[in-house]
Amino acid sequence: MTTAAAGGADEALPADRQPSGEARVPAPRKAPPAGSPGRAPRSVTGTRKVVAALFLLPALVLLGALVVYPIVYSVYRSFFDQAGTGFAGIDNYKTLFTDDTIRTAVKNNAIWVVFAPTISTALGLIFAVLTERIRWGTAFKLVVFMPMAISMLAAGIIFRLVYDAAPERGVANAVWVGVHDTFAESSGFPKAHPLPVAPLKAAGGGAFVTKTTVHAGQPVRLPLVGVLPAKMPGDAKPAKSPAAAGDGGITGTAWLDFTKGGGGKPNVVDAEELGLKGLKVEAVRNGEVVASAEAGADGTFTLPASADGAELRLPASNFREPYNGVNWLGPTLVTPGIIGSYVWMWAGFAMVLIAAGLAGLPRELLEAARVDGANEWQVFRRITVPMLAPVLAVVLVTLMINVLKIFDLVFIIAPGSTQDDANVLAFQLYRSSFGTDADLGVGSAIAVLLLLLVIPVMLFNIRRIRKEGRR
Q1: Which residues contact 13 (CB under 8 A, 6 or more apart)?
Q2: CA-CA distance, 137 to 127, in Å (whole number)?
């Protein structure tokens, strides 16, 4: 300690008063601070500011040319008329809130911002949590994420086919019709009707009745036309002429009075004509149904003796149009339908980000909650979701910005008859700027409105990122 103290004292002496003896090495000088005179200023990373500016200059030029200039010019152009020569003031902005088509676009954009990101994020959260513990979770995540590899154009074409109104082409209506027909009886022979010379006449409401009453011992013939041979029941057999019942009942035959290739006689059962299997026949007396029967594979049917003296009626349920599903692309459902296609694409994106956040959660907290008696729902609601809040905010904000710019799906999926009903601001921007009656003043005003809608979301995102960075 004495030596060290002496050494420290010697070092404090001037050079000409240093004691003789061993030569001493002068202490190295400390470099002057970064902001002191005589030293070029450097950035945080130590790079000279001039060099950094030279490297950033190309990017700044491109940013100004591709972002700043279009924004400034759009704001400037929004104050001029359609031709761009006359100053219009705020008339273009007034149009945004008075034109019915643009107001519909604003309303639909609000629906998109509320529902599309929320549903996508919720599904992503559910998929990420449920697939965490299953063996084939990776494969499931791959399948769910796969639509992200498809362009918006391709997804629009796919869902235009999915929402096709014809059940034989559109998957959505095929499933819907299948479920409906499982619980509701479908029509057997839509559009079937008798010929004018047939012993049947219209009874109103789509039903047909015999022109005269029927009696025991007198077989009844009920010929119909208007059924395509391809639509006939697959197990239908050649029709048989009715034979008289021996117990006082009423017998008859209902058949398709049409011979493929021509020939045959009306109201006569020909050899190649098929029976109308499943056709319902009712005996009606004084407006009340006294008996009923159903035609067999060969078209024959038998009614009890109580049907004697009654009229035979073919109820309208035999001939009503088949259920063809829902008009998914109609005025009412076109926007929810397009939102469904968006969720199909972006739920996988949300799932992957949330799954990454879920993998970083401290497992000891989850296990401690389970040990304390919390069930899985309580763990999910009170621990998992609050701890995933930053990730959920990232996903939600990203999707909100994305849906404000949605264009491709609306342009491809919505048919021309309902494009006004499915309209959104980005699509209206395209129509106003490049449509038949293009008005660049209104189009520029819509672009400025979209910018104003995006800015608050972007500021929220920036503020959240800075807050996360200070932690």
Answers
A1: none
A2: 9
Q: What is the dihedral angle through the alpha carbons of 237, 242, 246, 247, rounded to the nearest 10 degrees?
A: 80
Gap between the Cα atoms of 289 and 454, Å rounded: 67
Give the contacts of 264 (CB within 8 A, at least 6 positions apart): 257, 258, 270, 272, 273
Structure tokens at 140: 């499931």
CB 313 within 8 A of CB 207: yes
Strand partners, 314: 208
Which helix (H) or strand (E) segment holds residue 200: the answer is strand 200-204
| Amino acid at the residue 429 | L
The mean-pLDDT minimum among 24-38, 67-81, 114-128, 446-460 falls in: 24-38
Same domain, 235 and 262: yes
Does 339 map to a domain?
Answer: yes
The domain in which residue 366 lies consists of 99-165+328-438
Q: Which residues of 5-32 are buried (b: 16+ CB within 10 A; e: fewer)?
A: eeeeeeeeeeeeeeeeeeeeeeeeeeee
What residues contact 203, with CB distance under 8 A and at least 6 apart? 209, 313
Is the confidence at residue 182, as pLDDT, over 80? no
Residues 230 and 284 in one domain: yes
Integer Cα distance of 332 and 111 in angstroms? 13
Distances (CA, A) of 364 to 135, 368, 371, 377, 388: 22, 6, 10, 17, 16
Output the pLDDT for position 259.
83
The model carries a pTM of 0.71
For residues 121 and 225, membership in a common domain is answered with no
Same domain assignment for residues 211 and 296: yes
